[in-house]
Amino acid sequence: MIPQSFIQDLLNRVDIVDVVGRYVQLKKGGANFMGLCPFHNEKSPSFTVSPTKQFYHCFGCGAHGTAIGFLIEYSGMGFVEAVKDLAQNVGMLVPEAEDRLPPAQRAEQQAKSMALSEAMNRACDFYRQQLRHAEGAKNYLIGRGLTGEVAARYGMGYAPDGWDGLRAVFPDYELDALVECGLVIDKAEEEGADHRQRKRYDRFRDRIMFPIRNSKGQVIGFGGRVMGDGEPKYLNSPETPLFQKGSELYGLFEARQAIREAGYALVTEGYMDVVALAQLGFPQAVATLGTACTSIHVQKLLRQTDQVIFSFDGDKAGRRAARRALEASLPYAGDNKVIKFLFLPSEHDPDSYIRAMGAESFEKQVQDAMPLSQFLLKEAVGDNDLGTPEGRARTQFDAKPLLQALPPSSLRLQIVRGLAQITESTPAEIEALFELVQPISRVRAAPPKGKRTAPVGLERQIMRLLVEHPVLAAELDQAALDVAAHFAPERADMLVQLVTMSREMGVHANFATLAELLRSSGSDFDTLVAEIAAESESDVDAARLELAGAIRQTKMKMLATEMETLIASGLSGEQAQARYRELTLQQEQLRRQAQAEMAQRG
User: Are strands 265-268 and 285-287 parallel, antiparallel or unpaired?
Assistant: First the structure.
């Protein structure tokens, strides 16, 4: 768990204009910066970034947040990954409970990682430059129907046919980083040769080069394709500190905006599928890196979109790949996620299918792809004979691990019902037999917990001012906080949470940091945060006076309510009369305070 104090310090150091500016072209517009929103299609800029609030807001789609939130939404990073990315850019080391390395050792590892990244970037630039002058490689790509525009978008290049072509860009060819990041093979390491027999050579030679980027756009590996009949057809970077095949997807960095616009991600089997689909009008395609689809792949895709379509060849290898993708997807399948499987005829890949049948026909294939529920049942049935008890029992046996991997949901219930129908059972029998967690067919699901009632009137005004200027929370005395007693219980809790969080941030409390803390805590302040983000920043001194006035009005209402109660009781008894006089004095004091503040403003 990353300490909240670190999050606060980080947001105080980063500049959201620089962070967003890496991905969105921004222009100065008054006190803020403007640009085209990266989260929805628009022709006129409605996306603003406030350097004073350290917050972004889109007036078109309502997207808003801090620098951390932007990286999460735009790049599909997880919270920790986004924090680490920002921290690295400002020279901070993220403290983690599970990280027991001494700070010096962590700093050394970070420096090593940066050296590897630099080597990969230089190699990528070298390969791209080589492609400009490699007629054979260019003719091969043209023959595959690719334009220079698509090749440039994906950073494609060419590794020259020589043993040490990278020596041109790395004069110190003996650098350890070249071996560690997989650019160079050291024969001594591979064969245990004596130091005197050591021979280094480029891993990639005479191949079309496909750079693999992470969610930050950094080159972390390469895929190299032969242009003739050589083997292997594709050569990938080895596993390195930067690159783990089971965690990365080729083309995801380039496809993010297209995925949002299309409403789905299309997962294919290879690099060439991705660039060919982009060329033919389907830039929302990505590919696994010569390995089976993993749960990490699925998680990354579902951060970008609610619909993922896996496209595989219709042969046995394609079916096996689809089965592995199904198993990786099951833990994340739910009622608000759509996962489908597209099987093309065995003689076609996506590229050849579109060229033969046309883009519209392929689009229809995508729309008609097999839903996860149907594919799961199809896999469970397999070659089993549903006309016999043995065949139906075997089908249930094969379905059991698949259903156990699904989270409890309406989708799982629908699949259970489908399985029960084809195996002549009841849903309750299936759930009991499979020992499914939280059976759904026998127990009515509890309604989801609703959000607390939104504050209105003076309650809302007080909370809004404290969210926009959390430093004011430290100035409130106990008498001011007593106004919470006049709030409804759930809104009193909201005020206490707000004041507590603000005070814990200390003198450097600000809107952006508080908004990030409120977001990560799953609170009910998002509407207020969005409203504040959409407006120009107010002066803290004016806000202080407004807050005092709102608290005073709330107190006046409290006093008036109590006085009305006393009057209704007939003011019987000395104690009631004394309390009424006390309340009258308090009313007068509040009126004088209001007059004094009016005079101060005047």
Answer: parallel
Phi-psi region of 2 (alpha: psi -120 to 50; beta: other; left: phi over 0): beta
DSSP 243: -
- Asked if 38 and 23 touch (Cβ cutoff 8 Å), the reply is yes
CA 529, CA 50: separation in Å to the nearest integer? 14
3-state secondary structure at position 225: strand
Q: How many alpha carbons lie under 13 Å from residue 301 in its C-beta half-sphere? A: 34
Please state, in angstroms and rounded to a whole number, the distance separating the CA atoms of residues 419 and 557. 62
Q: Is the dihedral of CA 466, 472, 473, 476 positive or negative?
A: negative
What is the tally of helices (H) and strands (E) in the chain? Answer: 26, 16
Tokens of 448: 């989801």
Q: Could you tell me which residues come within 8 angstroms of residue 7 by beta carbon, excluding any fewer than 6 positions away? A: 68, 83, 513, 516, 517
Helices (H), 133-270: 135-143, 148-153, 176-180, 187-191, 252-262
CA–CA dist 304, 395 (Å, integer): 34
CB distance 2 to 80 below 8 Å: yes
Cα–Cα distance for residue pair 164/177, rounded to 1 Å: 15
Count Cβ neighbours within 10 Å for each residue of 6-17 and write b for 16 or more, e otherwise: bbbbbbeebebb
Token representation of residue 330: 């099951």
- Distance CA(388)–CA(393), nearest Å, equals 9
Mean pLDDT of 273-296: 91
Instruction: With CA atoms as reference, report the closest residue to 499 among 465, 520, 463, 473.
Output: 473
Rounded Cα distance, 562 and 566, in Å: 6
Q: H/E element holding 292? A: none
> 218 near 252, Cβ under 8 Å?
no
Which domains, ranges and CATH numbers included, belong to the chain?
4-89 (3.90.580.10), 109-241 (3.90.980.10), 247-368 (3.40.1360.10), 378-434 (1.20.50.20), 457-601 (1.10.860)
| 538 neighbors 29 (Cβ within 8 angstroms) | no
pTM of the model: 0.67
Is residue 333 within 8 Å of residue 324, measured between CB atoms? no
* Rounded distance between C-alpha atoms, residue 139 and residue 151, angstroms: 13
Q: What is the mean pLDDT of residues 404-429?
A: 93
Mean pLDDT for 446-465 is: 64
Q: Enumerate residues 6+ apart whose C-beta is below 8 A from 461.
A: 546, 550
DSSP state of 332: G
**What is the three-state SS of 472-503?**
HHHHCCHHHHHHHHHCCHHHHHHHHHHHHHHH
| Per-residue pLDDT tens over the stretch 114-134 | 889 999 999 999 999 999 999
Rounded (5°) CA angle 136-141-143: 90
**Region 83-110 average pLDDT:** 73
